[in-house]
Design the sequence.
């Protein structure tokens, strides 16, 4: 059956039918379409289009259709047509009234909003689960020292929990961004008609409350043309995937033979069909790879939308495949990332040795000189020369004694020798947000409190 056709002398060609049908992907909206149609039947009763008996028969039939699910061999134009056809088969003539005052344009907008609202809620819950795993991983190695990097060169020593808290902050912002996107998703479009508003006095606020929306949309033309809320989600999903990809890249490196800091669990790695010794970080590589797919989904819909005149154009049917794919990739990647985080074992002696053999303490020494009155530029030059001399002699920071430091330059006071140990230098960085042990302990506790509040 078609929801249109009276103006046409002939039907669409087989080629056009095949090219334009969307049931293959919009069947995902089945549950949302049932929910919206039930609410619409009640709204039709309130304005006198349906009798109480007709409304009851329609809602009961829709519930039965929901229980049956979408037939695998269905060949309807889209999920909305499928539901109405099945409704007509069950209740007959009253089914013909269900579309009174309702356009498929607003129906699609409603269904996508209902579906996407659930997926955003699930993604936000998964982000909190991942944050929980990162905090647990931090607390397993609270005192571990690792090199922090700039330009992928060892820069300054930091605590392992401080490093993980950086990703906690990224994912917490992703949780917030998805919440902001949800607020724009969660507006009820029914009553907008095709573009000019409904000719029936529906109580849109009552419909919004019934369907769990924060309110109703404000402009009927905007509803017909709008996919901003989908783009909001795709942008938030893209940033979350970007952060997941960066974490994946770190852990691919840190678990390599060259770094050797981490070991990933057998349950999140794979082997080689040829090389028996291999333990490959496929889970992380797939997260990194799927990031590009989500970026592509955002770009795809951006390009689709950029030249469309108001209001509805059939191009907008192409919003769903990128939306569905991005939502799936985000959900799968978050689940996988948490499984990886739960499997990670840190080998703290490896990064600690890297911190001790490198000149990660150089900034600590320069700042100690500055605190003692040496102009920082001069302090920077002195420590740079100390590093250069150490490289020439093959000496690590710990190879220098207090006497040797003082002999190198009189500005080096004997007590500064303790800063040749990276753990001592970190103790000078107790400023909020820094990697000092007390600052990090406070930050961990605050993160746990924030996480509990976010869950609530």
Sequence:
């Amino acid at each position: 059956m078609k929801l249109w056709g009276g103006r046409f002398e002939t039907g669409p060609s087989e080629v056009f039918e095949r090219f334009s049908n969307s049931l293959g992907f919009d069947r995902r909206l089945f549950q949302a379409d049932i929910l919206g149609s039930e609410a619409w039947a009640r709204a039709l009763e309130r304005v006198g289009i349906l009798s109480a008996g007709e409304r009851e028969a329609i809602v009961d039939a829709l519930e039965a259709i929901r229980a049956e699910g979408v037939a695998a061999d269905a060949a309807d134009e889209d999920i909305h047509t499928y539901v109405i056809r099945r409704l007509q088969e069950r209740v007959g003539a009253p089914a013909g009234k269900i579309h009174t005052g309702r356009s498929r344009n607003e129906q699609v907008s409603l269904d996508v909003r209902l579906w996407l609202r659930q997926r955003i809620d699930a993604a936000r819950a998964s982000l909190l689960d991942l944050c929980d795993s990162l905090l647990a991983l931090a607390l397993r190695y609270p005192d571990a020292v690792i090199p922090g990097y700039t330009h992928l060169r060892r820069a300054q020593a930091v605590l392992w929990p401080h490093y993980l808290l950086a990703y906690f902050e990224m994912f917490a912002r992703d949780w917030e961004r998805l919440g902001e996107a949800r607020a724009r998703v969660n507006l009820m479009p029914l009553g907008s008609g095709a573009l000019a508003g409904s000719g029936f006095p529906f109580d849109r606020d009552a419909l919004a409350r019934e369907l769990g929306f924060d309110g109703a949309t404000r402009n009927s033309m905007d509803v017909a043309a709008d996919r901003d809320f989908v783009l909001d989600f795709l942008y938030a999903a893209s940033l979350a995937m970007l952060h997941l990809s960066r974490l994946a890249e770190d852990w691919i490196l840190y678990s390599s033979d060259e770094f050797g800091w981490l070991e990933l669990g057998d349950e999140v790695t794979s082997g080689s069909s040829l090389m028996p010794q291999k333990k490959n970080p496929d889970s992380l590589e797939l997260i990194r790879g799927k990031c590009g797919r989500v970026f592509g989904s955002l770009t795809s819909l951006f390009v689709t939308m950029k030249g469309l005149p108001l209001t509805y154009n059939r191009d907008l049917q192409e919003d769903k495949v990128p939306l569905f794919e991005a939502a799936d990739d985000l959900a799968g990647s978050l689940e996988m990332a948490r499984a990886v985080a739960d499997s990670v074992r840190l080998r703290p002696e490896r990064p600690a040795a890297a911190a001790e053999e490198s000149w990660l303490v150089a900034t600590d020494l320069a700042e100690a000189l500055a605190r003692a009155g040496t102009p920082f530029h001069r302090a920077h030059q002195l420590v740079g020369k100390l590093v250069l001399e150490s490289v020439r002699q093959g000496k690590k920071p710990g190879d220098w004694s207090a006497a040797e430091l003082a002999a190198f330059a009189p500005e080096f006071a004997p007590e500064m020798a303790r800063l040749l140990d990276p753990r001592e230098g970190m103790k000078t960085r107790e400023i909020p947000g820094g990697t000092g042990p007390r600052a990090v302990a406070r930050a961990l506790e605050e993160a746990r409190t924030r996480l509990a509040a976010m869950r609530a």
Summary: The first strand starts at residue 145 and ends at 150. The mean pLDDT is 96. DSSP finds 18 helices and six strands in the chain. Residues 104-140 form the longest helix (37 residues).
